[in-house]
Amino acid sequence: MEYAKDITNRLKRIEGQIRGVLKMMEEGKDCTSVVHQLSAIRSAVDKVTVHVIGEDMGNCLLESIQKEENLKESEKIINNALQLILKTR
Question: Which band of pLDDT confidence, cut at 50, 70 and 90, is reported for residue 25?
Answer without folding.
Answer: very high
